[in-house]
Amino acid sequence: MKYLFSCIAILVFIAGLNEKLAAQPQYYNYNNTGGTTSAFPFVMPDGRMVQSLHLPGSFSNPAPAPGGQITSVFVQLSEPMNNKTLTEMFVKMGQTTLTNLTTGVFYSGPMTTVYYRASVTITNPIGWLEFILDTPFQYDPTQSIVIEMSQCSSTFNTGGNTLNTITSGVQRVWSEGGCPFVPWINSNAYTTHTGFNIQVTQPPAVVTTAATAVTGTTATLNGTVNANSTPTTVSFEYGLTTAYGSTVAGVPATVSGN
After folding, report:
1. What CA–CA distance (Å, rounded) separates 84 from 82?
2. 182 with 72: CB under 8 angstroms?
3. Which among 32, 122, 174, 218 is most buried, taking Cβ atoms within 10 Å?
């Protein structure tokens, strides 16, 4: 019986360990508990919006992040969240060539809403908090990425401070208060501890097969395309020599999925 209890205890321990390890991002900028803490954006009961800028090469741990589709975004917490409810919770992402944000001004370039909940209740231990994206975001590691997180109200005194490392320049801007968000007159060099899970996208796989129904003036061109989950435009080049010279759209002209 003692042996059985020991096995159960070990299984419970392993299950708990796996649950914690599941929240570890594949790639991140910083992963330590010695950073500067911030209440933005989760702790503020009247809501807050924060935009953070991450430069090319920032996500270099444990190896440089590749290009691909971001499927989850993480932020590192300095304290646990305990049954915290957030309303109108948004995560948006955009890429840019900027190396600094502008003090007291929100970034206004193109942004994609990748996560939204009218209301979400979060319980999370100290460490990485994961948001599984509703819409994967195509990431180019040669450009900076702007991450916007906002919420319109949150339950107070239930944790959620984030960890940040002070770098240089203007890396973070935030709102003066809750919804509707108005930019605060200040900003700082806080870089939020952030991580990604990235699904590396494979290029389309193309095979051209023999033409059929060939006559003196017409032919049916054939081939297969595996888009590897990336929308892909399909066309044929053709001509009387290997220089081709003419192009015709495939049918269908765009494919996706696998």
Report:
1. 5
2. no
3. 174
Closest CA to 193 of 168, 169, 170, 161: 161
Cα Rg, the chain, nearest whole Å: 24
Residue 14's φ and ψ, nearest 5 degrees, are: -65, -40
Q: Is the dihedral of CA 246, 249, 255, 258 positive or negative?
A: negative
Name the nearest CA neighbour of 79 among 29, 37, 32: 37
Q: Global pTM?
A: 0.75
The number of CA neighbours under 13 Å toward the Cβ of 133 is 23
pLDDT digits (tens, 9 = 90+) for 105-149: 999 999 999 999 999 999 999 999 999 999 999 999 999 999 999
pLDDT, tens digit, for every residue of 190-223? Answer: 999 999 999 997 778 888 999 999 998 889 999 9
Residues facing 130 on adjacent strands: 74
Q: Are 44 and 161 in contact (CB under 8 A)?
A: no
